[in-house]
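Intended use. Records such as the Membrane protein entry shown here are meant for training and evaluating sequence-to-structure methods. They are not intended to support clinical decisions.
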Amino acid sequence: MHALLMFLALCAGTFIPLQMGMNALLTLHWSKSAPLSSLFSFFLGTVALGILILVSRTPLPSLTSSTAPWYAWIGGLLGAVIVTTLTYLAPRIGALAMMSLLICGQLLASIIFDHYGLVGYPLRPVTVMRIIGVVLLICGVYLINRY
């Protein structure tokens, strides 16, 4: 099961540069605005998720019964910032540079989130081997963007 989950994460990762390229095409050929293209992307995603919720008959929980911390509700805002930024960057720096820098930022944040168990992640302390792995990936990002 763990291998399947890792494979699903890998597959989902391939969608990010694809989505950003499509959003960049919308910006170039339609809206001339990264935020507007991102809004359309989010709208279409919202419609798709709404259909999935209806088809799967997922019950809507009460907002008043939520025990989620206040910051748990801003994920969509962060998503909008990420998608709009990447939509803007995609045609300017290219898919490989954009994704390598995105992954570098994700790794740096993730090692901190795991080490301290922040925002709901399980506590996974930093080890020397994890640091070496992140440093090697950052070296790869440097090589990708230097040459």
